[in-house]
Amino acid sequence: MVVSIEKDQKEHQQLNYQQIFTEKKPLLDLRAPVEFAQGAFSQAINYPLMNDDERAQVGTCYKQQGQAAAIKLGHQLVSGHTKEQRLAQWIGFCEHNPEGVIYCFRGGLRSQTVQQWLKDCGIEYSIVQGGYKALRGFLLKQIDNIAKHPLVLLAGNTGSGKTTLLAHCPNSLDLEGAAHHRGSSFGSFVDPQSTQINFENRLTEQYLSRKFSSVEQNIVLEDEGRLIGNVHLPFSLVAAMENADVVVVEQCFEHRIERLLAEYVIEMFTQFCQQKGIEQGTIGFSDYLTQGLYRIRKRLGSQRYIALSTAMKQALSSQIDDNMRGHLNWLAPLLTHYYDPMYQYQLTQKQQRIVFRGDPQQCIDYLQSI
User: Fold this and answer.
1) Which of 104, 169, 273, 363 is catalytic?
2) Residue 104 catalytic?
3) Could you give all domains of the chain from N- to C-terminal order, each with its CATH number?
4) Mean pLDDT of the chain
5) Per-residue confidence band for 370, with pLDDT thresholds at 50, 70 and 90
């Protein structure tokens, strides 16, 4: 009977974890900022019980003097005006998010302390049993569930708009969106890429939010390598993708080059200037392009790299009145002589798995029909 009760409790707890993500319950993260930066959930807000320095002091005290002394120091550090300020943040969060929950790393002292302080103020608020560690473990299990589905890969030459097509497929997962990176050497954004932990969290959050009815349901993914920027795909997913059916979207060169000019040049220049101002934004944009080309210099070969680098510098120096057409002088040969041959070679390795080819609308129609 005891075993049965424990099993029921675990199943109920797992269900609660799933509801947190499928219902996008607001999460109050009490961990220190450094912990939050390493990995968090998309619906979480970080109002820490202790800042990084305070957490470090308490950790050192715990190692040297034990738990009782560490708890005492923690209460000393978070007291008076400091406690009042942080308590006001927590109260404000609870009042705006009555259906939310609290968590720390393991659902232990930090969660219980804040829960009690809120209770003293007349606010009853739930905590996540097991904390961040338990929620993270639950999400990691979902990756293996993704790999169990029949997968379909959307392939096509660079600039074909594969990511845009995915948005038309309700049974798709956006790997690049989870990674916050577009996959190529020029695929970064102005703000930093996702950490490995956040990439995995975002991917499984997407999966849970789609509410797939069964593991027999197809999942459409963009055809990716093992790495997307600095993050790597989970091994179980890579193995499943290596055996997946492939759908190839075919798009003319002119359309693709205009898309790359818009996404990698015009939009990125605008974003850099909006976030950093015209002067620093222009410098940041120039660094973004030159570093992107430099990363593939060995694959290009020295002669081609020098030619493209020269064309890029000329385009950067001649940007007047937002006229970016000069960048076509390096984008077009890069697409023709580097990206297209590389992608076509990769596609020949998947020839036996190609089940459909067509223009963007034909591919959308096919993917929506399977």
Assistant:
1) 104
2) yes
3) 2-137 (3.40.250.10), 149-370 (3.40.50)
4) 92
5) confident
